[in-house]
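Quick review question:
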């Protein structure tokens, strides 16, 4: 069972001015796929807070995948890619490229995504869009390869069998 953490990035949701819909949408999808959602939090669009949380969660060994939702666009306070890139040890550009390529088939606005993905310790970190629909659709794009990614990260000897 893949162990997930979900971080919603939203100034308004963190202040209680707007309900977080993306984090719960991601959690519902993952639970329907028999994954474990160990933690969900809402943070403001604050690079330092996100860096600290990503580092603590990834270094804890508690999570296989950390998903962020929101803060991936062009707005001045959109900081998820920068914070993610500052804490990862290896990039995983193919995941973000794949999500953008598939999303462009649905909306031209996908070209404005700056989402990043990468690895810290044995944890995969993936930035997703902030809308519930976009977050779930992008997760669905990469979901089928996550079990293999986790096998590789955990150095599972059986990981090479699926090549």
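Suggested answer, residue by residue:
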């Amino acid at each position: 069972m893949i162990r997930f953490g979900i971080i919603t990035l939203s100034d308004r949701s963190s202040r209680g001015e707007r309900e977080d819909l993306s984090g719960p949408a991601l959690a519902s999808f993952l639970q329907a796929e028999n994954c474990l959602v160990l933690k969900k939090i809402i943070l403001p669009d604050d690079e330092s807070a996100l860096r600290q949380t990503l580092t603590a969660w990834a270094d804890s060994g508690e999570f296989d995948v950390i998903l962020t939702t929101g803060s991936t666009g062009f707005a001045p306070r959109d900081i998820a890619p920068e914070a993610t890139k500052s804490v990862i040890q290896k990039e995983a550009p193919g995941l973000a490229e794949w999500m953008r390529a598939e999303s462009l088939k649905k909306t031209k606005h996908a070209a404005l995504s700056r989402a990043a993905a990468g690895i810290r310790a044995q944890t995969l970190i993936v930035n997703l869009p902030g809308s519930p629909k976009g977050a779930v659709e992008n997760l669905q794009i990469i979901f089928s390869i996550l079990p293999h990614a986790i096998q590789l990260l955990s150095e599972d000897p059986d990981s090479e069998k699926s090549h």
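Why it works: The longest strand covers residues 36-43. DSSP finds seven helices and six strands in the chain.
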